[in-house]
């Protein structure tokens, strides 16, 4: 049964290409996104009132969806600022300073640590945990903040999330949709995750080193000032700082144990980290500022929230547009999609899958493309059930490879939408490192495309065996 595409689908697809083009030109996309949302509402409802109101309501929807990330980033920034200003950060990062002595060591050490921690409780909390501690170290040895963001992003939101071997949220969704055991998807994904991760991170590192060597990318004075020239208040003894530098990682490690023990993931994991960080902020403020501690708690929280909302300002409009491709459309405009529609993005994915000839190579290419398209809404997860269903259809047609095709689609969807290419999904790493999410997306684009190309070829070879 085919999906009937309408003008609504065409306009959405057209604006995707326009937005991608505008991003490549390094121009702001807010105006284009607002026009796109307006046209989608106008076409669906034929009502000027609903279309205009939909612009504002789409922003509300985007903020609601992103609020958890905004808050965790804000709170982590608040904590990191007080750690820096009271000198606790210097004591805490000293073991890493000895280990990280060059930009290359910084890139690979940060990346591998990010990957391991992300396996246990997903990347966003991991970015928050590692970024504030390791960013100053990397800057000192010459790795630009953009390089740190790339390492955390590619290893965490890319490698760790696309496999998701510990929490198993992604493979469970795809396996259920494909009608196979989750273990089969995870086993099939191992070689593909390794290939995708290795190719992407190596290419990204090579490009990073090339631009650093040519002087196109370096640690700026502003970055050093931001992370090294905060006023230090010598109000705590060295022993107290040392005690806190041990206590803070222990508390966060306890969070990891609790997450693993209770099976917390996603928003629940982020909430646990956020609550713990608030307690840490309160403890340090009361110890460091004593009588003024209560006021300082509020002061640092305000500073963190100002940072968080400033960073998210340009992201909300583009997120609002892409959310219209999934559940956001119904939430904002009501039940105005064509009959039988499963969301604009999913409809486009189905149409693509049903319009190509069936063959091993075509099946692999189609799953990569469909996975990438479903990732454009920025979640990485909303469309992976679709990927499992399409993998099942192609596997029946070619008589094999359901687990490999499912894993390939899962990897494509998450690498694109889970936080390496779609700008608003890049926010955690970009915010912690104080870099533009759009610039980070542009930097990731070429390595991720090469990785997907090589991984798709690898999947073809596996299917041909």
Write a short abstract of this structure:
The protein has 465 residues and is mainly α.
Mean pLDDT: 84
Q: Write down how many β-strands occur, each being a DSSP E stretch of 2 or more residues.
A: 0
**SS content category:** mainly alpha
Low-confidence stretches: none
Question: What percent of residues are in strands?
Answer: under 5%
Helical fraction equals: over 70%
Q: What's the tally of helices? A: 21
The largest β sheet comes out as: none
Q: What's the SSE blueprint?
A:
Layout (H helix, E strand, L loop, with lengths): L6 H18 L5 H16 L2 H38 L2 H12 L3 H19 L1 H18 L4 H19 L5 H10 L3 H32 L7 H8 L9 H25 L4 H23 L3 H20 L2 H9 L3 H7 L10 H10 L6 H15 L9 H15 L3 H19 L6 H7 L3 H28 L1
Helix pairs in contact: 1-2, 1-16, 2-3, 2-14, 3-6, 3-12, 3-13, 3-14, 3-15, 3-20, 4-11, 5-6, 5-7, 6-7, 6-10, 6-20, 7-9, 7-19, 7-20, 7-21, 8-9, 8-18, 8-19, 9-19, 9-21, 11-12, 12-13, 16-17, 17-18, 17-19, 17-21, 18-19, 19-21
